Amino acid sequence: MLQKAAIIGIIGGMGPEAGRILHGLIIEETKKLRHIGQDQDHCDVLHFALPSIIPDRATYIFDQNQPNPVDVLIEIVKGAVSVGKQFKRPIISVVPCNTFHAPILFNDLMNRIKQEEFDEWFILYDFVKETVLGIAETFPNIKKVGLLSTSGTRKTLIYAQALEAQGIELIQVANEEQIKVDDAIYNPVDGLKALSKASERTKELLRNYVHTLRYQGAERVILGCTEFPLAFEDLENAERENFIDPMRIVARRLIQMAYRASPQ
Questions:
Q1: What pLDDT is attached to residue 148?
Q2: Closest-CA residue to 74 (of 113, 20, 120)
Q3: Which of 247, 171, 264, 255 is closest to 17 using CA atoms?
Q4: For position 3, what pLDDT does the model report?
Q5: What is the pLDDT at residue 56?
């Protein structure tokens, strides 16, 4: 049977591994959610990854005199819309980068999509809100959730506000420890972005913080940077119960929404 669901769009490159991971999880989760007997049974995915021309998100968040990533992203949306129109199928999309969901960036992109009248063909979902909705549905009795994230994500309160709306308390590492979390991502020698994998030091640091947040009362811990899963890939299933991977949650939700958006 030919694929007739909506097309899933990934606006990647922020960072490059995050888009790759999400695309892989869409393939993996489709096999769990639907019967797959041939290539044509998989979801159609448009994956745009242009890291060399997308300005840094955090730099713009803290200084609006710097280049705005949205100027590039709206051009990517325009390209996606042309594909959707060609195949007469809507695009449902996310940006797999938590920091990008600071209101100054995410709301700007949403407004430009509407102004350009792209919203008939291109539906952009909020990665953070979809994650929190997935948490609330999967763990309906959860009361306290930990968060490991970048400073940019932490300071913009995007998870704090989304969790509060669901009646869930947020627990984070101490301010002085946040520097070490950022270093696990950005260290030019062995950070996640430098290696596109997790060094032993990074694995140990991030896994210890998950246990710290659990000790402080968090029932689960959100891996609030889309490249954090690299540090947890080799864990046994039992250990995975300590944390929540937003990438997997969003992958499942995109698949489900793609089929709900199918043309009749």
A1: 96
A2: 113
A3: 247
A4: 54
A5: 94
In whole angstroms, give the CA distance from residue 255 to residue 23. 11
Place of tokens 């009361």: 143
Question: Domain spanning 7-127+249-260 has what CATH number?
Answer: 3.40.50.1860
Q: Which residues pair with 91 in a beta bridge?
A: 7, 122
Q: How far apart are CA 259 and CA 58, in angstroms?
A: 34
Q: What are the domain boundaries of the chain?
A: 7-127+249-260, 129-246
List average pLDDT for each run of 10 residues in the chain, which is 264 residues long. 78 94 96 94 96 95 96 98 96 96 96 97 97 95 96 92 96 95 95 94 95 96 94 82 93 94 53
In Å, what is the CA distance from 63 to each residue of 28, 85, 159, 167, 236?
Answer: 39, 36, 22, 32, 42
What was the pLDDT predicted at 235?
A: 83
The residue whose two tokens read 């009749």 is: 264
The whole model's pTM is what? 0.91
CATH number for domain 129-246, candidates 3.40.50.1860, 3.40.1280.10, 1.10.645.10, 3.40.50.300: 3.40.50.1860
- Tell me how far apart the terminal alpha carbons of the chain are, to the nearest angstrom: 15
Strand, helix or coil at 215? helix
CB 61 within 8 A of CB 105: yes
